[in-house]
Write a structure and sequence with these properties.
Elements (H helix, E strand, L loop, with lengths): L1 H7 L2 E2 L11 H12 L12 H15 L9 E5 H13 L5 E6 L4 H8 L3 E6 L9 H7 L4 E7 L11 H14 L2 E5 L24 E6 L11 E5 L2 H12 L7 H11 L2 H26 L2 E3 L6 E5 L8 H12 L1 E2 L1 E2 L13 E5 L4 H12 L2
Parallel strand pairs: 1-11, 3-4, 3-5, 5-6, 6-7
Antiparallel strand pairs: 2-8, 7-8, 9-10, 10-13, 12-13
Helix pairs in contact: 2-9, 3-9, 4-5, 4-8, 10-12
The structure holds pyridoxal-5'-phosphate.
């Protein structure tokens, strides 16, 4: 869809990347590290300063204690951490349970490991899951429960009851939890609670996050996995022969940035909440039914009030008809029918871009 946006000169509200740069001091830290000669391979686990900064962030913000030597692994973005976790922890024939719709790398990562994804539906408009469906998705072959909260593409923040249902399932069936928390700082309503903080979960949860969303530097691809040493060792073992270790100057800059994650995250989420309101209002004016998100930088909108019933066809035609690109929510789902009429739009764009997109959509 980004290529289509480029080709048609459309406003790209498809792919989730901000159209403004990250904070100046974070960019300066990267340039300084590059000039200071941090340009060779990083150590496989990641540069010590970043591993210490990740451990300090988890302790300060969530009260989670980690040994930066053995319980933190730096990766090329959260995406590599997810792939390495699935490769390192699954055997062929294993099953991975995830909420559906999902970030699209989950099914692919499971397939790389010879495992398969079993999906537990989040149903619009509330995007909640049914604990009975979660229980039914777990079989004797289930190895991992792969969670994502705050959740893409729905913008949901799982509440205490839902997290407890996930934790209870992991404890009862002795599952490893892999918890993708890349939007941990981009929350407007509710509170992000890491799965690892629930009773009995720290010892079985691998927490994954990255610098990309929090600091608006999605192209840096500096991420991490942290948790019990045995789980981190599995990630490290797989990562070693996928990519080994690099992005060294960016790792140093990420270490400096993480110390300001709360202050910067609070500023950014206040800005994003205003952008969410702006785009939601624009979509409503254009006639969509809007499913207002509590977090992330994505909103889903239903095309039925506009006389359409297929988000894929709608998104294919939208660049020609309106000069705007969105992504059909069904591409994130194993059950496309359930979300067939929804389109995901990203609001991590400048206000004037959001306004222009809203105006174009209103002309539909
Ligand atoms: C839920 C989720 N996990 C992971 C990622 C990727 O993170 P990274 O860019 O750090 O690989 C994304 C990016 O869109 C995402 O939405």
């Amino acid at each position: 869809m980004s290529a289509l946006a480029e080709r048609t000169g459309s406003i790209n509200l498809g792919q989730g990347f901000p159209d403004e740069d990250g904070p100046r001091e974070v960019l300066d830290a990267a340039a300084a590290a590059l000039r200071a000669g941090a340009n060779q391979y990083a150590p496989l686990p990641g540069v010590p300063a970043l591993r210490e900064a990740i451990a300090a962030h988890q302790r300060r913000r969530y009260g989670l204690a980690l040994d930066p030597e053995t319980e933190v692994q730096v990766t090329f973005g959260a995406t590599e951490a997810i792939a390495a976790a699935l490769l390192g922890l699954c055997d062929p024939g294993d099953e991975v349970v995830a909420l559906d719709p999902t970030y699209d790398s989950y099914a692919a990562g499971a397939a790389l490991a010879g495992a398969s994804l079993r999906r537990v539906p989040l149903r619009p408009p509330g995007w909640r899951f049914d604990p009975a469906e979660l229980a039914a998705a777990i079989t004797g072959r289930t190895r991992i429960l792969l969670l994502n909260t705050p959740h893409n593409p729905t913008g949901r923040v799982l509440d205490a009851g839902e997290l407890e249902a996930v934790a209870a399932a992991c404890r009862e069936h002795d599952l490893v939890a892999v918890s993708d928390e890349v939007y941990e700082h981009l929350v407007f309503e509710g509170e992000h609670v890491p799965l690892a903080t629930l009773a009995g979960m720290a010892e079985r949860t691998l927490t994954i996050s990255s610098i990309g969303k929090t600091f608006s530097v999605t192209g840096w691809k500096v991420g991490w996995a942290c948790g019990p040493a045995a789980l981190v060792a599995a990630v490290r073992g797989a990562k070693q022969f996928m990519t080994f270790a690099g992005g060294t100057p960016l790792q140093h800059a990420a270490a400096a940035a993480l110390g300001t994650a709360e202050a910067h995250g609070a500023r950014l989420s206040a800005e994003l909440a205003a952008k969410r309101d702006r785009l939601c209002a624009g979509l409503e004016r254009a006639g969509f039914d809007v499913l207002r998100p509590a977090a992330t930088y994505f909103v889903n909108a239903d095309v039925r009030p506009l006389g359409h019933d297929d988000g894929v066809a709608f998104c294919r035609d939208l660049p020609e008809r309106a000069g705007v690109v969105g992504i059909p929510t069904s591409v994130f789902s194993g059950d496309p029918e359930r979300v067939r009429t929804l389109v995901r739009f990203a609001f991590c764009k400048r206000e004037e871009v959001i306004d222009e997109a809203a105006e174009r959509l209103a002309r539909l």
